[in-house]
Amino acid sequence: MSEVLVLVDHADGEVKKNTFELLTLARGLGEPSAVVVGAPGVAAKAREALAGHGAEKVYAAESDTADSRLITPSVDALALLVERAAPAAVLVGATITGKEVAGRLAVRTGSGVLVEVDGVDADGTATQAVFGGAYVVKSKVTTGVPVLSVRPGAVEAEAVAGAGVEESVEVPERDARLVTRITGSEPIVGGDRPELTDASVVVAGGRGVGSAESFSVVEQLADAFGAAVGASRAAVDSGYYPGQFQVGQTGKSVSPQLYIALGISGAIQHRAGMQTSKTIVAVNKDAEAPIFEIADFGVVGDLFSVAPQLTEEVTRR
Ligand code: FAD
Fold first, then answer.
1. Distance from the alpha carbon of residue 258 to the mean position of ligand 1, in angstroms
2. CA dihedral of residues 291, 295, 301, 303 (deg, nearest 10)
3. What ipTM does the predicted assembly reach?
4. What is the four-CA torsion angle of 245, 194, 273, 237, rounded to 10 degrees?
5. For the whole model, what pTM was predicted?
């Protein structure tokens, strides 16, 4: 059976939920092999969790410089393994960095790429929502090793034992003059909240929230649920909330168990990033707002009245 390479999304060896979803999807296509890129020792930290979700092999592409070189170490490692292992496919998360890796890898290996995939049949036919979610299409890569970026939350992760055999991969260092290096980074806001693409509950605010200060209403409801905070592009462009929290076509794609939209109209570009959420709750004072077309539960009302009551009720329970 051919290998299926899965790029591991991790923070210092702590594996993120979307990787387990990718491993589950990979099992339907072949033998899952996890590819861990990072500083020396990260693959050993991640190995048990990866094996617990079906990884037969754990490739360790480790180097002292990997963490300071943006996404090129991942592209380099995957390109090398595509050549060496001739896998049936390469799966990466459809995160901001994952999508960038997928595009670059496809160019590097001369392969076709499918983005924002929601599912893959055993014969490699992928299901995708395209044109901002207006159409659902089935597509198949016919050139090279298929590279697929899979929407976080689209697949239910299953815990299945795999061998998890660790194998070191020596990726040649690039010419130091040709690489961009991260010289420092710090989280903007978000604190202890779960990551947007990993969270099982997302509470998002739109232009209806009205100001950066008022976003505390969104944050308080999110904290009552232990949820992540999201924002529409209008809220981001108006300076109410940082861009890293934008949900939608040009932001992040999320598929949580519960998505609560506060003061969001439901434009197609916003829906593209959240319409696969399992349950959608919308609070909007306009009964005609398009968000109600996809909401499972809708409240026509002022978010500044509804959200605090909801926060109080959730906290009380
Ligand atoms: P609005 O459309 O202005 O809606 C605000 C809503 O709040 C209204 O429905 C109003 O009734 C309601 N409201 C106001 N006050 C209250 C209150 N007190 N209580 C309850 N409800 C209230 N958008 C995204 O979100 N993500 C993207 O990634 C994205 N990408 C885009 C890419 C392209 C190429 C383009 C052209 C657009 C993109 N957009 C994206 C923008 C998108 O078209 C919409 O403009 C945007 O989603 C609107 O955001 P909103 O719903 O917050 O604002």
1. 19
2. -80
3. 0.99
4. -10
5. 0.79
